[in-house]
Write a structure and sequence with these properties.
alpha+beta, Alpha-Beta Plaits, two-stranded antiparallel sheet, binds iron/sulfur cluster
C-alpha cells in the first residue's frame, strides 16, 4: 500500500490522525496533514482505509503496490 495525501485539499480536521496516528500527523502551524509513513505495514492498512473513508476533504488516497503486497488486500 502506498498512501498519498493532497495538502491543497486538506482542511486540517485531523480525523486521519485519530484513525492512524502511525501514518498521519498534522503540521504544528496550520494543522495540514503530512505523512509519517507513506508505505505502512499490513497491520495498519485497515486504519488507513478508515482514514480515507472519514476524511471530510477526500484528501487521502491509497494505491496498492504490485508484488509482495498483492495477497494482503483488505
Ligand atoms: S482527515 Fe483529511 S482533512 Fe482532516 S487532517 Fe486528515 S487529510 Fe486533512
Amino acid at each position: 500500500m502506498r498512501v498519498h495525501i493532497d495538502q491543497e485539499k486538506c482542511c486540517g480536521a485531523g480525523s486521519c490522525v485519530l484513525s492512524a496516528p502511525e501514518v498521519f500527523d498534522q503540521r504544528e502551524e496550520d494543522g495540514i496533514v503530512f505523512l509519517l509513513d507513506a508505505e505502512p505495514p499490513a497491520d495498519l492498512h485497515e486504519a488507513v482505509h478508515e482514514a480515507v473513508a472519514i476524511c471530510p476533504a477526500a484528501a487521502i488516497s491509497v494505491q496498492q503496490v504490485e508484488g509482495a503486497e498483492r495477497a494482503e488486500r483488505v
